[in-house]
Specification:
The chain has three domains: about 1-160, Rossmann fold (3-Layer(aba) Sandwich); about 170-360, 3-Layer(aba) Sandwich (Rossmann fold); about 365-530, Glycogen Phosphorylase B (Rossmann fold, 3-Layer(aba) Sandwich), CATH 3.40.50. The chain has 19 helices and 22 strands. Mean pLDDT is about 75; it is low at about 95-110 and about 120-170. The longest helix is centred in the last third of the chain and has 38 residues, at about 510-545. It has a ten-stranded mixed sheet, with helices on both faces. It has about 550 residues and is of the alpha/beta class.
Length: about 550
């Protein structure tokens, strides 16, 4: 007899809304779920659904299958488990819809989840409300990915050929046939080297930009998203997911020569290649490919890694960047500062550089909206929107908060657990930590008059265009800054409060603040207009490249 689900001891990590969904879906398939793993001291020792939440180092029996939920956002967890020598791992994509769990929303165990992590309960219910009733047709086995809803929309006869990842294991013929399918109706095909943005966090400027590019091209072109698997093993199969008649996603192993060969053959059936970030510029994949190639730079990756002391990755990305600027045809930059940086660094001709500003796809409110943002009961509210990356200067921001305890503070972040630990020493302050969806940002921003945007005057920041700084301008939030040498904002004449003035309590009066907010709002309008023009220019350029009229 083969291995039955009940023979597999499963640990789910971390304890999140997704792992609760996984818990109920896998229990229905009779898997032996022995616990949750989580590093939160507030959760360890508690129970959910009759199983205990433990820290990874507390589990004595490592002969278990650890299932990582939303693993792209918890890379450190995977590395931690590997160091602790657990037997094997499986992964659940962060955009997976688990089937057969819909009715669990009324389950007492799920309701119990709300008492442990109340901020995630609403999102758990929302995700469960989207599930189809069909049960999973594939069993979870070691080394596999958990099945998702997208892979279950098939006839029973097809199931045996499908991989437990969201697609099927594919040979080159499958890939080429799928490309021909995308060409129906005369559409051209663009190969995007990137992860397709199934879910976009409110704070993730990179994925917002990937989604904006996809929206720009999807009416005129079919898209193939190609990304290396994060597990990066040589033995994994190449996986193909057909989303609809103009979109498919492929995952492959960088370390499998057959995969590289098949992807290179696939390029010959595409009309151009669009690369999101230096991170996807692999010389073994792209060297000698005779197709128009556009690199969307997104940021100065080697310098960012040097700033964060990641030496090995810095060397790898520097080699990739050098290869790209020597061989590719066009480069998309966020601002004039970034264009100037690369023309100086590599001597790249200016006509190869394309400007596409970062601009949130938000509706610009009427400027009269700004006067509504007066201080509540005379108390000033200061917001921070973002994560804990080194360049965000979080220790300096928290020090500033501690020196001005008379203000209210909001931290809007996807790293709420990390911030809760960071603000523990500031328990006397009024600090609200929120994890909000993109559509909720406006209501949160409208509560604040000032916003932290602390950046050092270094190259990483001089070429940046932080999404949050654009959003501050849109919603009448005057930025508190250490340096205004950020992208083109200095050139635009951005008005701001210097961090030292904030510390000393030297803030503008209300009329002056509103005038500053109005001035910055007009900058946002100018950026929106520039974005519209540049976006259309990029569309025309790419369509010309895929038609062969532009090299």
């Amino acid at each position: 007899m083969g291995i039955e689900p009940r023979d597999i001891k499963v640990l789910l990590m971390p304890f999140t809304a997704m792992s609760v969904i996984a818990f109920h879906a896998l229990k229905r398939e009779q898997y032996n779920i022995v616990g949750f793993l989580d590093n939160s001291k507030q959760l360890t020792g508690k129970t959910y659904g009759g199983v205990e939440i433990k820290a990874p180092e507390q589990v004595s029996d490592k002969q278990c299958l650890v299932v990582f939920c939303e693993h792209r956002f918890y890379v450190d967890n995977r590395l931690q488990v590997e160091d602790l020598l657990y037997t094997d791992c499986a992964y659940i994509e962060d955009y997976v819809d688990f089937n057969g769990a819909k009715e669990a929303v009324e389950d007492v165990d799920v309701l119990a989840f709300s008492s442990l992590v109340p901020t995630q309960y609403a999102r758990t219910k929302e995700k469960m409300s989207k599930y189809v009733n069909e049960r999973p047709k594939c069993l979870l086995s070691k080394g596999d990915f958990v099945v998702s809803a997208a892979s279950l929309a098939m006839d029973e006869s097809e199931c045996s050929s499908r991989c437990p990842l969201h697609g099927r294991k594919s040979g080159n013929n499958d890939l080429i046939n799928s490309i021909f399918g995308l060409r129906k109706g005369g559409k051209r095909v663009i190969a995007f080297l990137a992860r397709y943005p199934f879910d976009v966090e409110a704070y993730d400027g990179y994925l917002k930009a990937v989604l904006a590019a996809d929206e720009l091209f999807k009416e005129n072109c079919s898209r193939v998203y190609i990304e290396p698997d994060s597990n990066e093993t040589m033995c994994m199969g190449m996986n193909l997911q057909i989303i609809n008649d103009s979109l498919m996603c492929i995952r492959y192993s960088r370390y499998n020569k057959k995969h590289i060969s098949e992807i290179r053959k696939l390029f010959t059936y595409c009309d151009m290649i669009y690369i999101h970030s230096i991170y996807y510029c692999y010389e073994e994949l792209l060297d000698g490919v005779e197709k128009p190639i556009v690199l969307d730079v997104h940021g100065v990756v080697p310098e960012e890694l040097e700033y964060t002391d990641t030496a090995q990755l810095k060397l790898s990305t520097m080699n990739s960047e050098t290869f790209a600027f020597k061989n590719f045809g066009k480069f998309i930059c966020r601002n004039d500062a970034m264009i100037e940086h690369y023309t100086k660094k590599y001597g790249t001709p200016r006509d190869k550089m394309i400007k596409l500003p970062s601009f949130s796809e938000v509706s610009l409110p009427q400027s009269e909206h700004l006067v509504q943002c007066d201080e509540k009961d005379g108390q000033i509210c200061v917001i921070f929107s973002g994560g804990t990356a080194k360049w965000q200067m979080i220790p300096m921001m928290l020090d500033g908060m501690s020196q001005r305890p008379e203000h209210r503070y909001i931290i809007a972040t996807c790293e709420s657990d990390a911030f809760k630990k960071l603000v523990e020493p500031l328990d006397m302050l009024e600090i609200e930590i929120l994890s909000v969806e993109p559509e909720q940002l406006e209501s949160v921003y409208c509560r604040a008059q000032y916003g932290f945007a602390l950046r050092e005057d270094i190259i990483v920041n001089r070429v940046a265009c932080p999404t949050k700084l654009v959003e501050y301008c849109v919603f009448g939030i005057v930025p508190i800054m250490l340096s205004n040498k950020i992208g083109d904002f200095d050139k635009y004449g951005l008005q701001f409060v210097h961090y030292n003035d904030f510390l000393s309590g030297t803030l503008p009066d209300n009329d002056t603040r509103l005038n500053m907010a109005e001035h910055n709002y007009q900058i946002a309008r100018k950026m929106a207009e520039e974005y519209s023009v540049c976006k259309q220019d990029l569309l025309n350029l790419v369509l010309g490249m895929v038609e062969g009229s532009i090299k």
